[in-house]
Amino acid sequence: MRLTFRIFLLTFIFPLFIFAGSISGKVVKKGTTEAIPNVSIFISSLNKQSNSNLDGTFILQNIPEGEYELTFSSFLFQKIVLQKVPVYRDRITYLNIEMEPGTVELEPVIVTMQRKIIQQDIPSTFYRMSESSLKQYPLSTINEIVALQPGVTLEGNVRGGKTSETLLLIDGIPTFDYLGGSILTELPRFVIQDLTLNSGGYEAEFGNALSGVISVSTAQSTSEPITKIRTETDYFMPADISSQTNKLREFELFKRDKIVFDNLTYFTGINFKQTDGRWWQDLSKFVDSPIQQKLSSYSKLEYLFSPLEKISFHLMTWKNKWSDYEFSWRFNLDGLPERNEQIYRGTVMYNFASSTQTTYYLSFSTTSYLNLIGKSKPVEPFTPYQYDLFLQYVMDGNKLHWAKDEQLIYTLKGDVTYEQQKDNLIKLGFEFTQFNLNSNQMRIDPLKTLYGKPMEDKPMLSFMNNYQKKPKQGSIYLQDKFYYAQDGSVLSIGLRYDYLDPQINKIIFDSTEVNKISEVATPVKSHISPRIGLSLRMSSTTMMHINVGRYVQFPLFNYLYAGTNPSTILRDTKNIFRANPDLKAEITDSWEIGIKYFPNEKIIHSFTLFNKKTKDQIDSKTFIPFDSKFAGDYGFAEYVNNAEANSNGIEYLFNYENQPKISATFSYTWMITEGVSEYVDQSINFIQWGFPMKAVVFPLSWDQRHSVKFNFETELFFGFRGSLITLYNSPRPFTYYPTRDGFTPLDSTKDFLPNNYRMSDVLLLHGKLTRKYNISGMNGNPLVFYIEGRNLLNKRNVKWMDSNGRIGGELGDPTAFYELRRVNIGIELQL
Predict the structure, then answer these.
(1) How far apart are the first and last CA of the chain?
(2) DSSP 8-state code for residue 748
(3) What's the predicted TM-score (pTM) here?
(4) Residue 525 lies in a domain
C-alpha cells in the first residue's frame, strides 16, 4: 500500500521536493594541525554516522535541509556536541573541529553554531539573514530586509538593475507579476525562517532574473506545540499631539502543533494589518478609515514517513486593498481609483533523501494573481478631469483609469542530482510554466509637458487594451560542481537553455493599401546562458571566488501583448503604447572577483569587484502603422530592444558574530550605473515633449555612487537588547532643465541631457529595543515588549526634484521626501 502511494505521488502532478545537502570538514587536535582519524560523527535524529579518515577529513551526504545536532567522539578525546548545524540544499556545510585530549567519560563540550551572513565556499556574492537576526532588527517586509544588503538601493535595485530584474522565490517557487514586473506579496514575520540574496553569479538553476535572486525559506513544521501572538501599532498618542503616525494596527498569529501523531504536524501564520498611511490627513477627508488593509498568510501541513521522507501541503494568500494618493489631487482624492491585489498559491511537496548518491526533485505549483484598478470601467463620452485656473491642482472629475488583470500560473520543476563519490555533484533540471493571462485595461490622460503641465489644446492620450493569451515558457539546465573537501574549494560549471513561446500572431501591414493587415505566427524565442564559478582556498583564512555568466530575462507580457489586437490598432486613439511580439529577451553579461578573509570563527571580511553589461533592454519608438494623418501628430509608441545599461563597482563587507553578546555588519559599496534609458517609455515621452533623445549614456536615476550600511545588535542594561541600522547613500541624479512657465525651457539652446544634476544625500537611522518579562503561569515563556523607530533623526531625505531643481516641484509635493520619523510599539507572546 505504501509503495503504491509513492508511485502515485511520482506519477501524477504532486510536487516532489528532495532538499538535501552535505556536511564535511576536518577534525584536528586542539591548538595544532594534527589530524585525528577514526572520530565518530553521529546525527541522532537521522541515525546517520560517519568516521574521519586518516587525514582527519569526513563527509556526511544526502542530509535533508534543516538544522541538526552532531556528536563527535573518540576514545582519547573529550566528546563535542555541535548544535544547530545548518544544512542547505545542494550545499556543503564545512566544519573545522578541534578536540581536546581527554576521555569519553568527561562531560561533553556543547557548542551552538552561529549562522554566517555569508558562506565561505560559495563562488558568488551570497548573503543570508536568519530568523533570529530578523527578530532583532526593525524590519517588517522582504523589501526592507533586501535593502539592508550591499549593492541594493532603498527601492530594491540590485547592483544597478531595475527592480523588475530580481526574482523572488518562496520555498523555491517564483512569486512575480509577469505583466507589470513587480515583486509580489508579504509574509507573516513568524513564518520566515531565513532569507538569502544572491546578487551575483547565481547558478544555472535560476533563470528569468538579471540582477539578483531572493530566496525565502519558511518555518519548519515540528511536533512541538507553539502558539505565538504579536500586535504592533504606531498610534499610541493622539494625532493632535503627534501627526507622525500612519495609524497602524497590526496583529499576527502563529500556531504550530501535531495532529494526533507526532509525525503529522502543521503550522499556520496569519498577519492582518490596517493603516491610514502616510497621507491620512488628506485622505481622511474623502476615504473612510482604514485606508489600506493587508492580509497575508502561510500554512503548511506535513506528514513524516521517516526522518528522510515526508509530504507537505502549502497554502499562501495575500490580499492588499488601498486608496491611491497624489498630491495634485489632494482636493479631489475620491476621484482616484481604488486599488486591489489578491494572490492565492497552493503547493504539495514530497521530500525524500535516498541512502544512495542520487536525489530527485519534482514540483508543481499553481498561483492565481488578480489586480484590480477602479470599481467600474469608464464609458464614453470620456470627460477629462478639471484643473484649477493655474493648472496646478485637480479640482473635479475622475481619473480615467481602470484595469482587471488576471494571471493563472502553473509551474512544473524538476531535477536529478547525482553526488559522485565525495567531490562531484551533477544536477540536471528543467522548468516549465504555462500561463493563462487575461488583461483588460483602460487609461485616458491629458498630454502633459516635460514639466507636468496639462496641454489642454491637445488630444488626450488613450491606452485601451484587452487580450487573453496562453504563453508557454520553459528551461533546461545542467550544473556540475567539483568539491575539494579538505579545504572547501569549489568549481561550479553551469549551462542553461531558456525558451518562450508567446502564442501570438504578429500583425503585418500592407504598404499598398491603407489599413489592410495580415497576421503571421511569432516564432519561439530561445537563449543559451553559460555560467562558471570558482571558489578557491588561498590559505587557512582566505578564499577567493571568481564567476562569469550570462543571464536572461524575457520581456514582461504587457510589452508583448498590449495593444496588438487589430481592432485596437485601427481605432482612432492617440499615442497608444503598442506591444511588440518580436521583442527579444534582455541579456546581462557579468563577472565578479571576490576575496573572503576570516581570521577566526567570529569575523569575516569580504571584498568584491563586479561588472555588469545589459543589452537589448526594452525602450520605445514612434510607430506609425498607416496614414500619419489618421494616426495624428503623436502616432503610436512601439516597444523595441534598443537600450543598454552598464554597472560596475566594489563592495566591502565586515561581519562580526559573538552571540548572544553582540553581532555587527558593516558594508560599503562604490558603484556606477549608466544607460541610455531608465524606463521603457522614456524615449517616446521625451519625443512628444519636444526633446528628441540622442543615444548617449547618462547616469540612471538609481545611480548611487557611494552607499554605507551598518547594523548591529547587542545586549544592553536591565535585560534590554538593542539594535541599530544606519543607511547612507550619496546624492542620486535628476534632470535639471528649468522653465519659467511650465511649457517652454528657460534656455532652448541648451542641450537636453537626462539626469545631469544630483540631489542631496540620504541618511536613515533605525533602531529597536527589546525586553523580555517573565510572567507566572506562562510555562516559562516570557512576554516580549519592543519599541522600534524608523528615521530616528527625522531627517527630510529628498526622494525627487523637478526640472527646476525644486524639491517637490511647483506644489512643494511632500511625497518628494522619504518618510519622516515613525515609532512603533509591540508585544509578542509565546504560549
Answers:
(1) 39
(2) T
(3) 0.86
(4) no
